[in-house]
Design goal:
Blueprint lengths: L7 H23 L4 H37 L2 H19 L1
Helix pairs in contact: 1-2, 2-3
Length: about 90
C-alpha cells in the first residue's frame, strides 16, 4: 500500500488544480500574454508541484521508511538510501 493512500483524494484535487493552472498558462501563451505574467504563473505551478512533492515525501517517510526501519534488516537501509536519493533529485530540480 502506498504511504499516501489516506490523502489520495487531497493529492488528486491538488494535481487537478495544477493541471488547470498549466492549461491556463498554455492559454496565456496562445493569447500572447505579457512574458512576466506567464512566468509568474509558471512559478506558481512550480511551487504547487513542490508542495505536492514535499507532502508525498513526508508521507513516504512516515509510512514506508518508518515501517522498514522498525522491521530492521537490509530493507531499512535501502529505504533510507532511496529517500535520500529522492531528496537529491528534488533539490536538483
Amino acid at each position: 500500500m502506498a504511504g499516501y493512500e489516506m490523502q489520495k483524494a487531497d493529492i488528486a484535487k491538488r494535481l487537478a488544480r495544477i493541471e488547470g493552472q498549466v492549461r491556463g498558462i498554455a492559454k496565456m501563451v496562445d493569447e500572447d500574454r505579457y512574458c512576466i505574467d506567464v512566468l509568474d504563473q509558471v512559478s506558481a505551478v512550480t511551487r504547487a508541484l513542490q508542495n505536492v512533492a514535499v507532502g508525498l515525501f513526508h508521507d513516504h517517510l512516515g509510512h514506508c521508511v518508518s515501517h522498514a526501519v522498525q522491521a530492521g534488516g537490509p530493507d531499512a537501509q535501502a529505504k533510507i538510501d532511496e529517500a535520500t536519493a529522492a531528496v537529491a533529485r528534488l533539490v536538483r530540480s
